[in-house]
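Work Package 3 (structural annotation) set out to generate three-dimensional models for the target panel prioritized at the project kickoff. During this period the team completed the workflow that converts sequence records into discrete structure tokens, so that structures can be stored uniformly alongside our sequence database. As a representative example, we reproduce one entry of 295 residues exactly as it appears in the project archive.
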Amino acid sequence: MSFVILDLEWNGSYSTVLHRFVNEIIEFGAVKVDDEFNITDTFSVLIKPQIGKKLCSKVKELTKITNEELKENGIPFLDAVNRFTEFSGDSILMTWGTSDIHALIENYSYFTGDVYLPFLKSYCNLQAYCEGCLDLHNSASQLGLSSCAELLGIEFSQEEQHRAFFDAELSLKCLKLLSDKKPLKGFILNADDDNFYEKMTFKTRFITDLKSDEIDKSQMKFKCDCCGKQARRMTKWKSHNKSFSAEFFCKRCNRRFIGRISFKKKFDEVIVKKRIVEKREKQKENDDKTVADNV
């Protein structure tokens, strides 16, 4: 059994065909490893942009890749796919998170009209695997590659980050240090399954309609973060910046606070994020004045 750990870099390119921005891939970097995670082969190519004309300033700053490099040394995206298909063979494909798979599908579909990647037979999300090994299960805040490396005490150069081959190697180092914690088998998906591509191409979105059946209303209760008792909602819910907020009152603490909650829809779950915000002192003073005036 062999594995290919792939990392990509891409540029936000505006497509005059689709009339929207596309995450146009500009670099492939990968390592092929055996079942003991020893490197047996490597892969690295630059991709000549065909959708956008120039790299955005942020991408140039992060990657240190220049427009001149891509023009002189880059190859067309489909040529890179053909080379990578030959390189990967029947290996299980691994990426850190699913954003690289999204970009691959988006680019391949743009140039061929087909979403099914020729080199993708089985897939493993290394980010999810490492989070499982480290017992980190916060869906609202996923573990970044550099953060994982720091947690594991892996030394790396910040300057080398955001280059595809370097990040693929760094992903491998994280995998090797955690490989004895959990079996990989439970994290490997069959790309031939009916819902694999549907899941991979599903675009997460915030639920902004409070009446939506996708919202679990029982999640909209708040406990006081001082005493832990259930607080009473005092105002109607207001929608703001893809979240909902309302004022709550804790009878035990005689305290008012703002409860904020958001619902992010993923393919097979809804991620709920809640937080408590203290009321501003001026607002508290106004409330106290109102109470005094009404006495």
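Confidence is low (pLDDT under 50) at residues 281-285, 289-295.
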